[in-house]
Amino acid sequence: MPPKKNSQVATNSQLSINRNNSDDYDDDNDNNHILEDDANCRQMICASIQYILVHNSKSQVIKRLEWINTVLRPMANDGRKYFPTIHKHVVKILNDTFGYKLIFDEKHDGYVLINGLKQGSLEHRPLANSNQYSKYALLMIIIACLKRAGGEMTSIDFWGILGETFSIRNDESTRLTINQNKIFGDVQKLIKNDFVKEGYLIFEQAKDFTGDTPTQTVKLAFRAQHEFPDETLEKFIEKIENYEIESDNDVDDNNAMDEDS
Amino acid sequence: LANRQLYTAPDNDELEKKIDQVDQAFAKVKMPREGVLDASTLRTISNLASVRIRAVDEAGSLDRAYDFARKCEKILSKLVGSANEFYEIFGNFHHIAPSCSMMNGRLPTKLFTNEYQEKQKQRAKPVRQQKLTQEELEKSRTRPEEVKEFNSELGEQTIKQIMHIKRCLVERYKAVESSPIDYFEFVIDPKSFAKTVENMFHVSFLIKEGFVNLFQDDVNLPALEPTDKAMNRMASSNSATQGNDSNERANQMIMSITMDEWEQLIEVYNITEAQIPPKNH
């Protein structure tokens, strides 16, 4: 009977909110109580998890309102009222089952799925799709450079670094010439379009110091700050700097031989 | 812009030298515009100073970013698989949630059936209209209405008035021993110009329908004569053609009258009373 179910859910959600988060055993009991008693609520949780996992593959921010309108509203008349409870269960299930963290972005009113697992010493293979390795390689380099420069830099410096090292120019592709990089492909689309849409970079207009012409600033966006936390990024930079290249070793050997002679 | 890196470098004192130059230049400032330029320069210097202060911070440095990028480029150039191999080696530091590519088939939820149904609606084919048969086409065509009876155009009131005028004309014709009646004397109402025009309008219908003959009399003035049709007489068989000629004369007249002319006609004809009384009378 719908009214009773609503009141049951409301009572259970109030109970679960009032309890301590550290009391895991009681939380599990409450969760099981809710899941067993309210089949509709359980369906909504399952549908929400499916929705988040499928839309995460698009690498875009999962909007909160879209989640409510697409999943909860069609399944219940007062779907919006269930959202706090559903959200709590979804966060717990994603963490317990998959090791994912569902992090909220206030600026975009949406959620991002982050891998919360710590990789062990035997795990060396990354989890991205193999057809996106070059894209994420460029992303890692850009994010590390921005971090080294203090988290932001002007677009002139940004394109200057990329142009000097990887020959990546800030030119649009035209009908006659296609700006394709040998290593990373269509970098314009990747940097200006994909990375911005997916929440890794922000291109912000800022007034120039002379006050005449506006300049653009490149910053790290929400998703980059969570997918590349400071500790992990420092380890990545350290590994890069300690990575030995054969040519460097040959130069060192030659220098040593000269000194000996 | 070329000097920007010079001014923002932490180990360079070019900015301080520039401040001294600006201070010396300010001593010569006399006009407001020069003061504005000085203020703008001071703002630029303060912004560059803030950038230099941030660059001093150990966490951020453009040079360090350049060095890091150069090292990455060296690594990439040495790797056989280039960017793919680079990410395989260093991708462990990327906390990415993998996409659900292991799932097979469509997820059986209402979410996607709704989307599927919406897409189906958008792809719905337009319904073809059935071809009309020849009869239906003929019926649907717009045609002008055929006029079969003239009197159907007129209102009932007008027809009654016309018949009344016909009776008046016949009675008048009998009263003057079957001699033609002057047109103006018959239609003019000395008390109302509008009534005169109405009488002329109604008489024109009588002429058209063949109840009244219009002709020129001996003094070339228009005259009226009721026909056999108005008198309800049958034409004799002997003089059929002659009777037709005398009774049905194909004469036409275009008549116009103004109030001045109406008054003049009343005066000339010395009309004191209308020959067509009101219908109720």
Automatic annotation (TrEMBL), chain A:
Residues 48-233 form the MAGE domain. GO terms for cellular component: nucleus. Residues 1-31 are annotated as: Disordered. It comes from the Eukaryota. InterPro entries: MAGE, MAGE_WH1, MAGE_WH2, MHD_dom. Residues 1-17 have a biased composition (Polar residues). PANTHER family: MELANOMA-ASSOCIATED ANTIGEN MAGE ANTIGEN, NSE3 HOMOLOG, SMC5-SMC6 COMPLEX COMPONENT. This is MAGE domain-containing protein.
TrEMBL record, chain B:
This is Non-structural maintenance of chromosomes element 4. The keyword DNA repair applies. It comes from Rotaria sordida. Component of the SMC5-SMC6 complex, that promotes sister chromatid alignment after DNA damage and facilitates double-stranded DNA breaks (DSBs) repair via homologous recombination between sister chromatids. The keyword Nucleus applies. Residues 120-150 are annotated as: Disordered. One of its GO terms (cellular component) is nucleus. It holds the Pfam family Nse4_C. It is found in: Nucleus. Its main location: nucleus. Component of the SMC5-SMC6 complex. Keywords: DNA damage, DNA recombination, DNA repair, Nucleus. It comes from the Eukaryota. Residues 180-275 form the Non-structural maintenance of chromosome element 4 C-terminal domain. GO terms for biological process: DNA recombination; DNA repair. Residues 133-150 have a biased composition (Basic and acidic residues). Belongs to the NSE4 family.
